[in-house]
């Protein structure tokens, strides 16, 4: 699917790119490879832009499927910031031209609202008049920069009615093709698991599952373990469909606790894809220093992920050590037992 609505911003500054954005292009990978892009400048220098273009130019096939530009904050004066500056600051000019060129290659470019700095969702949680006031600048930013979706990273208390109101309004204003994702900590997608959002994700999925394209579940900071298939599968066992659950990973140890080396992640991905053909994909926090290429070639992370997922899906099994094979067998039986126990419990309370 391609987004052909031409933004006012693009028409004004990049008229030559407009036809390219509407040309058809294909992203080769059919599992999601999501990249968060927050550090847009090297060394905090307003002139040292960290380019996204190698993601679409370094190889004939494009590996990344979604780029999430982070983080949008709604300010108390009813304006929005991208990180510490307004989105039309000149330091972001290259961010928006890169974004348009990625879209021209079929990559979905979205915004990410919230994250660790709290306040945006509190401001969207008031009465109708207050909601309108704080929603307006967010709405304008999405339209001005042609964002194709919004990732809701709710790390502060937000009401269920508040998140439902926001989702419904985004769909109403930008159409059904506008993509909504959320970024809960992984445990929030298991029954009784901890969360940072205040509302219950099972209630949200029940009420607005049809409007949520996927969840970028954070398997780090102690809220989920990406070094084994267990926590991901616990989410599926509790009822979330695999194609909606994206495994969120840190891309370098300095980006947060819970980093898993690519060597250790490879067999986990292999198992997840082999066991769950509809595996929802991976998300990386964040782009600028992603391993294995690190600062010099951070785009290699997306290619590495796409290659490994594709190989696993094609059944290219690498030799699995006998002990690992045995553990997988034990986990599989354990899963079946747990699922049955939960079913009995649900039937009992129903
Ligand atoms: C950032 O700083 C490092 C270390 O001082 C330097 O090697 C690098 O070239 C700088 N990067 C940019 C893009 O200015
Ligand atoms: C949300 O509210 C609860 C109690 O009302 C509080 O204990 C908790 O710290 C809050 N969480 C966040 C992330 O602000
Ligand atoms: C998570 O969400 C629920 C709502 O289901 C809330 O009651 C609970 O206190 C939240 N907070 C934590 C830290 O898990």
UniProtKB/TrEMBL annotation:
This is GH18 domain-containing protein. Keywords: Signal. Pfam families: Glyco_hydro_18. It comes from the Eukaryota. Residues 1-28 form the signal peptide. One of its GO terms (biological process) is carbohydrate metabolic process. One of its GO terms (molecular function) is chitinase activity. Residues 31-312 form the GH18 domain. It comes from Daldinia eschscholtzii. The keyword Heme does not apply. InterPro entries: GH, Glyco_hydro18_cat, Glycosyl_Hydrlase18_Chitinase. GO terms for cellular component: extracellular region.
């Amino acid at each position: 699917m391609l987004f052909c609505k031409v933004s006012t911003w693009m028409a004004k500054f990049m008229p030559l790119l407009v036809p390219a954005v509407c040309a058809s292009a294909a992203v080769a990978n059919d599992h999601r490879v999501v990249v968060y892009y927050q550090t847009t400048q090297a060394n905090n220098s307003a002139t040292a832009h960290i380019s996204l273009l190698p993601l679409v130019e370094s190889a004939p096939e494009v590996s990344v499927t979604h780029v999430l530009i982070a983080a949008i904050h709604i300010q108390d004066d009813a304006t929005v910031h991208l990180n510490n500056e307004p989105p039309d600051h000149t330091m972001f000019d290259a961010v928006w031209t890169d974004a348009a060129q990625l879209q021209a290659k079929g990559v979905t470019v979205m915004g990410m609202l919230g994250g660790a700095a709290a306040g945006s969702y509190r401001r969207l949680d008031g009465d109708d008049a207050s909601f309108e006031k704080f929603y307006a600048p967010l709405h304008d930013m999405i339209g001005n920069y042609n964002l194709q979706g919004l990732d809701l990273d709710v790390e502060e208390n937000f009401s269920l009615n508040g998140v439902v109101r926001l989702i419904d309004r985004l769909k109403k204003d930008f159409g059904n093709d506008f993509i909504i994702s959320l970024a809960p900590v992984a445990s929030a997608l298991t029954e009784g698991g901890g969360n940072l959002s205040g509302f219950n994700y099972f209630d949200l999925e029940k009420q607005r599952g049809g409007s949520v394209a996927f969840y970028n579940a954070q398997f780090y900071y102690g809220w989920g373990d990406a070094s084994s298939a267990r926590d991901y599968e616990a989410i599926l066992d509790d009822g979330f469909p695999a194609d909606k659950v994206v495994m969120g990973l840190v891309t370098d140890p300095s980006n947060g606790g819970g980093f898993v080396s690519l060597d250790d992640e490879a067999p986990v991905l292999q198992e997840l894809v082999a066991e769950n053909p509809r595996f929802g994909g991976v998300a990386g926090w964040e782009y600028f220093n992603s391993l294995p290429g690190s600062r010099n070639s951070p785009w290699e992370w997306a290619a590495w992920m796409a290659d490994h997922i594709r190989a696993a899906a094609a059944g290219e099994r690498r030799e699995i050590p006998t002990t690992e094979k045995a553990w997988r067998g034990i986990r599989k039986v354990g899963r079946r037992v747990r699922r049955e126990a939960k079913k009995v419990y649900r039937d009992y309370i129903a």
